[in-house]
């Protein structure tokens, strides 16, 4: 057929389908139908051919029947009245001696998706459940599920449900699994298929007969069953033992998930099951499928939380291949960090060092971050590698090294001398804002040990007008203030120039307000300024990688064999105790609207009456906490534990400060930032000697990007 426009093509197809000469030639008739299907697949509207295609389905050619049924199912909803003409042909085909024709007719009868045809479909489906051919029974079982989805509010036929339960003992394993799936859909409102002891043992005994998909479906449904005795539990575990080491990763994962659910009260048995799946998991990590490898790596990290030594002897299996995608390399590096010990630390560090020069900057930065995490336990070796990487003079490597050193000195204060000596001259290679912020944080914390710190700051201050990053400007303000307190003669002039620019010329209100805050803080005296700005610079009590206590399996078993480990792909699965306060996650939900954080229900829970004066006192525009993860570039200086910060709510004031006593009564304790007009609300009232009273001095808020000084003297007592 020559190339024509869509309308001309449809007219040509209709003419050909109606031609008696074409209809008499079976091959030409089939090719014409094929052309109509091809046009449909290319987006041409061929719905006008519906009546001609209805006639074309009355044939003995199975190939032509399949093509016609594809067309009819696609356009049935557009031609519901003409679709009635197809039913007679389909019902006739349901009685064909060929089981393939019968199953094809049943499948397409349910695929028409027309509620008006349900009464014509029920009888063939009921007969299909008792058909002698397994392929017909398979289609009939799923047909009842399709019929229920078509009319979900219709009354469930108890006879059909009973017949489906009876087909759970069908000799064909696909029919058995299809029955489970159909019963799950039909009985969804009642909790799904009822699983009792006879059904459970029957399904387990026939588990090996099913294909991979069928085994996974059976194992998923069996998670709802609870053994009635310990003997029955161990009988079930014995039946599952072979599937636990299945060569198919989906079956192995589903079996282990069922194992962990059944053995929630038997930790020793659960640990033994984790040992058993070591081999299949390692095999999955070597799969040709990238998706399978990534999924296996994510689940291995879950297992290492409870069994850290599970893969210790096989750490070489997690070395990165050159052709592997970046996301798999980064996940493997995270696993390698979990497997480090005294015996393999030298080899692992040498391997990670090679990844630091990867052509992919993200992979290189991930390798440097992994070395920094190992440095918590082996600081000398890791610092030697990190210092050597600075000599490469590459921008992304230098930035990652400085950020890693910034994180490392918080946990390992003994590294500070080496880090300070390595900082000399690296500011020229830092082009990204994250690296510059990390460098400024280090200069703020250890500026008295870095001889070139004032000169480095002077370069930043000279370029402040062209600085595009808001975070760098604010970090520069804090760093200059802290360096002024320890080296006043060298930084007095540059601090004055910086404050003058930020107050008089800076257009961003956040930077201007912070500069005003520091300016007025200096008027309170050096001693008061020192109390606010200088806190602890490290916290070695946060622990190291080696020797962390193993987590109970119950803490993560619910997420095994789900998408949850994959959702956490961008977040390193390490306990929250690591890292400095600048890495604390303020809120479990990133970018949470503070209008949701401090809503009426929470105020009522705190015992504060809601009046017409309270909520309007705060600005309506939302403020958001910044969720800071591991390796974040934002470094704030508040000194407060994560546990205590969970009790803090922050809102911007819209009313006069003098009215705060009236609208926020006890038991909420209020600290006011007068310059920035923020209020920090605590759930209870701490004593004057408490952690909050001595440590809550700065609160970092992302959307306003400002360090808000909390004036303790304005306590509304």
From TrEMBL:
Q: Where is it found, in Gene Ontology cellular component terms?
A: endomembrane system; membrane coat
Spans through the membrane: none
Question: What residue stretches are annotated with the Clathrin/coatomer adaptor adaptin-like N-terminal domain?
Answer: 12-522
Q: Which residues, by range, are in coiled-coil regions?
A: none
Query: What keywords appear on the UniProt entry?
Result: Membrane, Protein transport, Transport
Q: How does it sit in the membrane?
A: Peripheral membrane protein
Question: What superkingdom heads the lineage?
Answer: Eukaryota
Subcellular location as annotated: Endomembrane system
* Gene Ontology BP terms: intracellular protein transport; vesicle-mediated transport
Which InterPro entries does the entry mention?
AP_beta, ARM-like, ARM-type_fold, Clathrin/coatomer_adapt-like_N
Q: Which PANTHER family match?
A: ADAPTOR COMPLEX SUBUNIT BETA FAMILY MEMBER (PTHR11134)
Q: Which family does it belong to?
A: Belongs to the adaptor complexes large subunit family.
This chain belongs to the protein called Adaptor related protein complex 4 subunit beta 1
Gene responsible for this protein: ap4b1
């Amino acid at each position: 057929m020559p190339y024509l426009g869509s309308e001309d093509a449809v007219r040509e197809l209709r003419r050909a389908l109606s031609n008696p000469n074409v209809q008499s030639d079976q091959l030409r008739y089939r090719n014409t139908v094929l052309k109509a299907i091809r046009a449909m697949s290319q987006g041409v509207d061929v719905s006008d051919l519906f009546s001609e295609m209805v006639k074309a389905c009355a044939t003995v050619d199975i190939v032509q029947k399949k093509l016609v049924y594809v067309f009819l199912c696609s356009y049935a909803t557009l031609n519901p009245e003409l679709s009635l003409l197809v039913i007679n042909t389909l019902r006739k085909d349901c009685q064909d001696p060929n089981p393939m024709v019968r199953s094809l007719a049943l499948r397409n009868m349910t695929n028409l998706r027309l509620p008006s045809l349900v009464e014509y479909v029920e009888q063939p489906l009921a007969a299909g459940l008792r058909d002698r051919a397994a392929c017909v029974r398979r289609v009939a079982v799923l047909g009842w599920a399709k019929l229920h989805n078509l009319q979900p509010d219709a009354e469930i036929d108890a006879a059909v449900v009973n017949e489906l339960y009876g087909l759970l003992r069908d000799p064909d394993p696909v029919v058995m699994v299809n029955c489970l799936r159909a019963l799950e859909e039909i009985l969804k409102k009642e909790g799904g298929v009822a699983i009792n002891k006879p059904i459970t043992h029957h399904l387990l005994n026939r588990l090996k007969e099913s294909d991979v998909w069928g085994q996974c479906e059976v194992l998923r449904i069996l998670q709802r069953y609870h053994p009635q005795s310990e003997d029955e539990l161990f009988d079930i575990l014995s039946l599952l033992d072979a599937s636990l080491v299945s060569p198919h990763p989906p079956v192995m994962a589903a079996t282990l998930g069922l194992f962990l659910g059944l053995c929630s009260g038997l930790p020793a048995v659960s640990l033994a099951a984790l040992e058993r799946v070591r081999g299949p998991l390692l095999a999955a990590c070597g799969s040709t499928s990238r998706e399978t490898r990534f999924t296996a790596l994510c689940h291995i990290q879950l297992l290492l939380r409870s069994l850290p030594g599970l893969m210790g002897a096989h750490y070489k299996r997690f070395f990165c291949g050159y052709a592997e995608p970046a996301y798999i390399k980064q996940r493997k590096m995270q696993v390698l960090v979990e497997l480090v010990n005294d015996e393999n630390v030298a080899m692992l560090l040498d391997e990670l060092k090679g990844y630091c020069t990867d052509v992919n900057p993200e992979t290189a930065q991930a390798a440097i971050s992994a070395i920094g995490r190992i440095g918590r336990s082996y600081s000398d070796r890791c610092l030697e590698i990190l210092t050597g990487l600075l000599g490469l003079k590459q921008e992304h490597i230098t930035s990652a090294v400085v950020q890693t050193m910034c994180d490392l000195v918080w946990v390992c204060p003994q590294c500070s001398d080496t880090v300070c000596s390595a900082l000399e001259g690296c500011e020229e290679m830092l082009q990204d804002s994250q690296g510059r912020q990390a460098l400024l944080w280090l200069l703020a914390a250890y500026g008295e040990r870095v001889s070139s710190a004032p000169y480095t700051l002077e370069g930043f201050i000279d370029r402040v007008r062209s600085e595009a990053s808001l975070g760098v400007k604010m970090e520069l303000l804090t760093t200059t203030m802290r360096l002024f307190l320890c080296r006043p003669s060298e930084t007095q002039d540059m601090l004055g120039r910086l404050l003058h620019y930020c107050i008089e010329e800076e257009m961003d209100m956040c930077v201007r307000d912070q500069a005003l805050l520091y300016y007025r803080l200096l008027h309170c005296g050096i001693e008061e300024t020192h109390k606010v700005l200088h806190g602890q610079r490290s916290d070695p009590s946060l622990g190291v990688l080696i020797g962390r206590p193993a987590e109970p399996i119950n803490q993560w078993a619910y997420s095994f064999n789900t998408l949850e480990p994959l959702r956490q792909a961008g977040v390193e699965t390490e306990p929250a105790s690591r890292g400095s306060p600048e890495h604390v996650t303020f809120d479990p939900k990133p970018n949470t609207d503070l209008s949701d954080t401090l809503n009426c229900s929470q105020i009522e829970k705190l015992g504060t009456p809601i009046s017409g004066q309270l909520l309007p006192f705060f600005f309506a525009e939302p403020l958001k906490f910044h969720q800071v993860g591991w390796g974040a570039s934002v470094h704030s200086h508040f000194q407060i534990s994560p546990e205590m910060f969970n009790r803090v709510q922050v809102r911007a004031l819209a009313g006069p400060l003098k009215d705060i006593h009236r609208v926020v009564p006890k038991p909420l304790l209020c600290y006011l930032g007068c310059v920035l007009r923020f209020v920090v609300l605590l759930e209870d009232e701490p004593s004057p000697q408490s952690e909050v009273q001595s440590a809550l001095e700065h609160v970092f808020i992302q959307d306003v990007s400002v360090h808000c000084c909390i004036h303790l003297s304005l306590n509304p007592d």
